């Protein structure tokens, strides 16, 4: 079975995000970019499926600028077999991304799609569910455990207040939550090996789907700055202030 | 045109998130209907009908809907969508699961985690874990919106909307099947919706110390327990306690950070809290830059004192 893993190049989760003064967006010039952390978890899960003999091939696909090849190389160094880059400098919305992925899936015919539940830039948490809808496939989002036996995946999901377990007939879309696994660090030999693995570079036009954005960004602003408050000297003072000044006790 | 709000409820009552989502809906249109899905939802439907400003409550009952399965919810909501210009749901894990599926079936964009309604098609939403706010205007004919309920006031009660049953379409395609649900039995409130959160960081030093120090304080305050990513990575606390960019985003009335330095990705998850208290022995820790009340002290002495002082005021 082939596993398809979409991965996104995003600002590194440790970088302080700065809004551009002209309010058109976030300043990404000269900041460290990395693979979306949830996509690392998706990649790790796919590689583990291959190591367990469940999957035969792990294909990673990224939609983004030329530098997204680096993101694909990271996934290849973790153990994915080959990459597809749909190169575009446009900032596509989740619906457009899902349509492109649907077109990739029509060519690749994977048995399952495993992907991060959300990207930490747009925070939409939408592509996986949209992809499942467009394909008319079942979905299992926010997975913390995946077991695949034959044509069925048993997926434990993180839901508010607990866990839900679903049985999902494949092919299906599964999105990864934090607890699914801890992604490995690629070893140096694997990083070297990844340089030789194939990456197929495509353009959005190759897929003939409508990727027009539906939302217009009117402005991007900084959230109201939080003012640091006061230092209190004693615990008694703290409790008194919380009770009488802040009114939260 | 009207707005449909998909209710979040426990069968007997709608949750607070529903009334807050109705507030967001009323900012779009004065015709707001509420959809209550599940099994045995008459209590929840009655409480939805009492939300002021609600025009009509629709109920839909089936096992798949009660299990919150995205495929069944999508079939139902798409069948109802013709009568609505916008479909809103609280951004709970259930809502986040089905809403994008509905949006894609309607061939529209989803507007995620809305914190303000600026016009019938214009919304503000956090991006980059709340480090930036994006104002977007939709060009879609129909809107699918998830609402960050903590950003809205609850709608008043006192309404008396009619309740009617919607017809539930048969399942059309391949769908996931429910096996089981394991709801964590905890007397503590759930982290994402708690009014008070007590979080511990790496300074705690061990899982035993985390449990010994953080959990009793949380229980004394009736609080949920959170943790920094550093504490989770070090194995002091389970991953679902994690507050931050890659964990849960919380906005309680009171957030108490103990032994947490305040890494960017942690601040992203809690800086919308109303009141932040930080206890840390490092006076230069970045957490103090966002804390309303900072106490430079070792948690080992400060937390026992805090427990005592809370007892004095009857906690």
What structural keywords apply?
heterodimer, A: 249 residues, alpha/beta, 9-stranded mixed sheet, 13 strands, B: 315 residues, 7-stranded parallel sheet, 5-stranded parallel sheet, 9 helices
Strand content of chain A: 25-35%
The number of helical segments of chain B is 9
Low-confidence stretches of chain B: none
Radius of gyration of chain A: 21 Å
User: Largest sheet of chain A, if any?
Assistant: 9 strands, mixed
Helix content of chain A: 25-40%
Structural class of chain A: alpha/beta
Main interface by residue count: A-B, 81 and 95 residues
Sheet/helix structural class of chain B: alpha/beta
Number of helices of chain A: 6
- Element order, helices and strands of chain A? EEEHEHEHEHEEEEHEEEH
Report on the architecture of this protein.
The complex is a heterodimer of chains A (about 250) and B (about 325). Chain A has about 250 residues and is α/β, with parallel strands linked by helices. Chain A contains six helices and 13 strands. Chain A has helices at about 35-50, 70-80, 95-110, 125-135, 190-195, 235-245, and strands spanning about 1-5, 10, 35, 55-65, 80-85, 110-115, 140-150, 150-160, 160-170, 175, 200-205, 215-220, 230. A nine-stranded mixed sheet of chain A has the order 9-8-7-10-6-1-4-5-11, with helices on both faces. In chain A, helix 2 crosses helix 5 and helix 3 packs across helix 4. The longest helix of chain A has 15 residues, at about 35-50. The relative contact order of chain A is 0.18. The mean pLDDT of chain A is about 95. With about 325 residues, chain B is α/β, with parallel strands linked by helices. Helices cover about 30% and strands about 30% of the residues of chain B. Chain B has helices at about 15-25, 40-50, 65, 70-80, 95-105, 205-220, 230-235, 265-270, 300-310; strands at about 1-5, 30-40, 55-60, 85-90, 110-115, 115-120, 120-125, 130-140, 145, 160-165, 175-185, 195-200, 225, 255-260, 275-280, 295. Chain B has a seven-stranded parallel sheet, sandwiched between helices. A five-stranded parallel sheet of chain B has the order 13-12-14-15-16. The longest helix of chain B has 15 residues, at about 205-220. Chain B is elongated, with a radius of gyration of 21 Å. The N and C termini of chain B lie far apart (about 50 Å). Classes of the chains: A alpha/beta (about 250), B alpha/beta (about 325). At the A-B interface, helix 3, helix 4, strand 7, strand 8 and strand 9 of A face helix 4, helix 5, strand 5, strand 7 and strand 8 of B.
């Amino acid at each position: 079975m082939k596993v398809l893993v979409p991965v996104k190049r995003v600002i590194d989760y440790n970088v302080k995000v700065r809004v551009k003064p002209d309010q058109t967006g976030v300043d990404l010039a000269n900041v460290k970019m990395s693979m979306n952390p949830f996509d690392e978890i998706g990649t790790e899960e796919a590689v583990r499926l291959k190591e367990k003999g469940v999957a035969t091939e792990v294909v990673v696909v990224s939609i983004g600028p030329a530098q997204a090849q680096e993101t694909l190389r990271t996934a290849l160094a973790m153990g994915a077999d080959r990459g597809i880059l749909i190169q575009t400098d446009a900032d596509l919305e989740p619906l457009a991304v899902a349509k492109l992925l649907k077109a990739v899936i029509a060519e690749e015919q994977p048995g399952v799609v495993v992907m991060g539940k959300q990207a930490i830039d747009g925070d939409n948490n939408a592509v996986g569910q949209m992809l499942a809808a467009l394909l008319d496939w079942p979905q299992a989002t926010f997975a913390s455990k995946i077991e695949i036996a034959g044509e069925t995946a048993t997926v434990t999901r993180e839901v508010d207040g607990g866990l839900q377990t679903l049985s999902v007939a494949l092919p299906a879309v599964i999105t990864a939550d934090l607890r699914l696994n801890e992604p490995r660090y690629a070893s140096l030999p694997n990083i070297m090996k990844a340089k030789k693995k194939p990456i197929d570079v495509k353009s959005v036009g190759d897929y003939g789907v409508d990727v027009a954005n539906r939302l217009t960004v009117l402005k991007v602003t900084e959230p109201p700055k939080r003012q640091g408050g006061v230092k209190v000297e004693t615990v008694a003072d703290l409790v008194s202030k919380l009770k009488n000044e802040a009114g939260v006790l | 045109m009207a707005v449909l709000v998909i209710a979040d409820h426990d069968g007997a009552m709608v949750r607070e998130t529903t009334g807050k989502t109705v507030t967001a809906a009323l900012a779009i249109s004065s015709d707001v209907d509420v959809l209550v899905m599940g099994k045995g939802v008459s209590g929840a439907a009655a409480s939805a009908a009492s939300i002021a400003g609600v025009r009509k409550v629709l109920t839909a009952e089936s096992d798949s809907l009660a299990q919150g399965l995205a495929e069944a919810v999508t079939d139902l909501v798409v069948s109802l969508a013709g009568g609505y210009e916008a479909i809103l749901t609280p951004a709970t894990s259930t809502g986040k699961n089905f809403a994008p599926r509905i949006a894609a079936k309607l061939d529209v964009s989803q507007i995620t985690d809305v914190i303000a309604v600026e016009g019938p098609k214009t919304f503000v939403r956090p991006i980059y874990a709340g480090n930036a706010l994006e104002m977007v205007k939709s060009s879609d004919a129909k809107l699918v919106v998830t609402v960050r309920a903590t950003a809205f006031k609850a709608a008043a009660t006192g309404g008396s909307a009619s309740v009617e049953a919607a017809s539930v379409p048969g399942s059309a395609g391949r769908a996931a099947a429910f096996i089981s649900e394991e709801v964590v039995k905890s007397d503590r409130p759930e982290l994402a919706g708690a009014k008070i959160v007590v979080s511990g960081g790496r300074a705690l030093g061990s899982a035993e110390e985390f449990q010994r120090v953080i959990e009793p304080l949380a229980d004394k305050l009736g609080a949920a327990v959170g943790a920094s990513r550093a504490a989770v990575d070090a194995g002091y606390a389970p991953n679902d306690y994690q507050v931050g960019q890659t964990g849960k985003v919380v906005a309680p009335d009171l957030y108490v950070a103990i032994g947490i330095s305040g890494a960017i990705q942690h601040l992203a998850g809690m800086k919308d809290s109303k009141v932040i208290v930080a206890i840390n022995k490092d006076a230069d820790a970045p957490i103090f830059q966002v804390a309303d009340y900072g106490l430079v002290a070792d948690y080992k002495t400060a937390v026992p004192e805090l427990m005592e002082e809370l007892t004095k005021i009857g906690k």
